[in-house]
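User: For documentation purposes, I need each entry recorded in a consistent format: the amino acid sequence on its own, followed directly by the corresponding structure tokens. There are two entries in this batch. Please keep commentary to a minimum and don't merge the entries.

Assistant: Recorded as requested. Entry 1:
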Amino acid sequence: MSESNSKCESSGAKQRRLWLFRLLFVALGLAPFVALEIGLRAFQVGENDEPKDPFAGFNERNPLFERDGDIYRTSRFRGQYFPEQQFAAVKPSDEFRIFCLGGSTVYGKPFLSDTAFPKWLELELNARLTGKRAKVVNCGGISYASHRLLHVARETTQYEPDLIILATGHNEFLEDRTYYSLKSRSTAQEWVDHTALSLRTVALARRWLGKDKAPDLAPSPEDVSGSDHVGDVVTRLDDRIGFASFKRDEAWRTRVGEEFQTMLKEMVATCQANEIPILLVRLGSNLRDCPPFKSEHKPGLSLDEERRWREAFDLGGSLDIQDPEQALAAYREAEAIDARHAQLLYRMARCLDRIGQRELARQYYLQAKNEDICPLRMLDDFAAMVETVAQDAGVPMVDAQAALDRAAADAIPGFDLYLDHVHPSIGGHQRIAAKLASSPRLNSLLPLAAPLSHSQKAEAFKQHFSTLPRNYFSNGRRRLEWLDQWAQRQRLLAEVAPRDADDFIRQGMRRYEFGNSEGAWESFDQAIKSDSATAESLLQAYALELRNQGRPRLAGELAQRLNTAVAQ
């Protein structure tokens, strides 16, 4: 028995020595790398100046805000694609704190957050509050879709918010949605990923191998706040195949829609679990002056049908400028063959618009948007999901889409309210803010005085405009040019070329918004030559709108020049 025990002890000792030898061998093998890592840190070599974590956006170890003494400010890693914001680390007792979450619409593109609806909301609330101050923090991330906003929503619950406003839905198709393996990582796996990528040895190796150069969202021009590109969002349009990667894929659309709805529910549930009021916003988009970005035929079209469709479509195109009614008749022949081609639907909408059938035109504009193969505007069924989630969860929804539609002629918004496909004009942002300020949810949470008069609001906004730098609007124009290049809008210029006085006025309004008064008056003069009565009426209304926005100087210049032009 003792001999057996002795053999077991001897065997155990051998096993321990074997494992010790193996651990020593591994330690010796790792020693050079440990020494290298220590050396790199000692001499500050290989430090990451940018977040190279490919899981950024899904990693709660990369917060949006970082503490700096007595305040939280936007992280230097996130400042490339979120606006620079700050708020007190310890919330003052008289502060009502709101976080606004969303994409570049919330951010305020193509301008900055200074003229986005969260800022106008803060200004209006503070003009109506006594004994309290509103602090509205802009958490709009460029190209951020709902799946990326979920972590932002979870983070903001830590900062004592009194209300969270969520406005999302335009960016759901921007990325190739293959993130399940990332978002479903365990805490341990996430820690391993994060730790490995924080090693300077790994950082240098990735840099030498070119693995740390994830494509950006095509850097826009530098603005007053610095570099303006996106580091962790790589959209499909940034890929070399760009629009070609978008195909008609109903199953894919359905999956993206299901995930969008799930993310909305998750964010609402997160707020409710933390007893934080949440308000959803349904966003709108440009219908009249934004052709679909990509069109495809319906599945199953034969070669003969495609030939006959093309003949009818081209005939309509040849008649479009001079005779919209005859063009529409040709387009209807094409529609009978394929009623799902987005470009055809948009051209039919424009013809209907020009011959005065506005209600039917709106229906076709909406169909063109919903059939867009590259949906950079929120689809109607996604907009319906926002309302459904709000109703099911018992939380309020503010319909910004309806508010801007009502402000547009014939409820068909174009460049009068949107500067491109989805980003509202400054007046559009102010209307969204006014809708939020009048919402029952906000009025139940805050002791708000009566709504401001037009003159009171204009004076408050005028003071804010006076704080903006002189190059604010010209910088915005450069960003808009970049956005147009990114979306390849030059392909669509012929589709949206002005045809009548209304079109020229909207084109001029878009130019005037960026301080390009000479370019604007080229368009306004064309409108006056086309239909002086209509142009004069629209420009007078626009001058009044500018005055109500708090921009009396622009309004006065417009009115003076209009009087001169009409007198001639």
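Entry 2:
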Amino acid sequence: MRGFLLVTLALLVSGCRPLSAQVAIKAGESVGSVEMTSPEGLPVVMNNYSEHRGTAVLFLSTRDNATLTVAGRISSLSNQYRYRKLLVVGVFSGSGMTGPEVRSFCQANGFNFPVYLDPEGKLARRFDASVTPEAFLLDKQGRLVFSGSIAELETAFKALDAGAPLPASSTVVKGTPIGMPLSQRPIEDPYGAIEFSSELIFDKIPGYPVHHCSSITVAPNGDLLVTWYGGSYESSDDQVLFFSRLKQGTHAWSKPEILIRSPGMPPGNAVLFTTRDDRIWLIWGRMEGSQPMLRGTGWSACSLRFRTSLDNGVTWTEDKPFFHDTFGWLPRNLPIYLTDGTLIVPLSDELHGHRSDGSQIDLSFFVSTKDNGATWTQSGIMRGGEQPTIVQRGDGTLLAYLRVAPKILAAESHDEGKTWTVPRATALKNPDSGISMTRLKNGHLLLVFNDQDKFDGRTPLHIALSTDEGRTWGKPLILETNPGEYSYPSIFQSADGKIHIIYTFRRYSIKHVEMNEDWITHFDRPD
């Protein structure tokens, strides 16, 4: 009698439990209502099978290699058939996996379909799922019509979509046993996070309508400092050097102030940089040609001057001649530090380059210092292009790109700039406008330039990425495409990893753009 009562009690208790926790569904049977838990802990009952042409229930794990191996295929399968009303549902069965872990895994793998938790394995037992990943396909009546691997599910989807007979279910599916203890693994997000902002440094400076040729540096206190020349027109005798500051942690540039006024010998191209002794340098070209001067001329009659600041650009030393005889020299692009601590400043000679027939030829080179500017040395000459922008490759060689139409020239140095290869045309277009290149912390190169060969056509403005140190370049992205001039960029990466670009904006202003590399490389997220 006692045994009979115990059996009866057991049956009664069993009858109080959901059927899904007790009886494994067989082929052709209806699964009925299925209880699940969202990653946020909310209960969900699935029984809307009639709303879809088919429902695939996939048992998955965030922690096994087998699921990770087929994650891309699962994402592709869901995207391909969701427009055909075939639903994919992910079930992460087994203890240990948390809701945030599951969400992070699914977001990183592009799973744009519903996912749920099955911590006690009830759903796995209902479907008789034994491994991850394993797939089960239900029809519009919620009947089990197929079970097998992810690859076999793809075949089943095609058959169901075409109204053809479904393949036979697999008896054995390879994978990781459900319930096997596995350690949590790092989840990397391949989609990144896009960061991008831009602003004009100023709208208008009364009395100075035209602005061009900017340079940028980071002060020791983290402020961004920018200088450029502005006046009535390029080479005008009222031309001055302006200066503006973006304080660290703010988003508004200071009101531009005149940094250099040189009546009769107006300032032209200038370059700002910070040496490792926390000294800010400004090297600028003083236009020493005779007045009156034609618009846009006078560059071959410049000589270099410099000043420095030890208080983040608040006060400056008096201007002095830079180096020795620099008549005809001009700066343009930002200096770089080499791996041995040498600082190099790219320069052009606008005066002394001549071919054997007497015609003018551009000369480019750099000056270098190993003692933060106490002494300087001149490098070898590159002939045929101007305004060099230079990076150092991982093997120590130097790569220089030179401005010239119709294609950017490239030269290399294998002896720290003492000698250079003959500059050769690259596939990169140039309308005889300024270019700027930088090497990122991860070794990738970025180049900002006007990707067209129409002479003096300074729109659009492009940015391109190279992941092999300039040997090849990806398709350029457009930074500016409207009518007008967008030119003379300067680009660098700050210590926090942000990429900063400044450039002439229609000659009305100077524009600052801040981004991360993901903005250049990441375009689509699954949604």
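Summary note for entry 2:
The first helix runs from residue 2 to 16.
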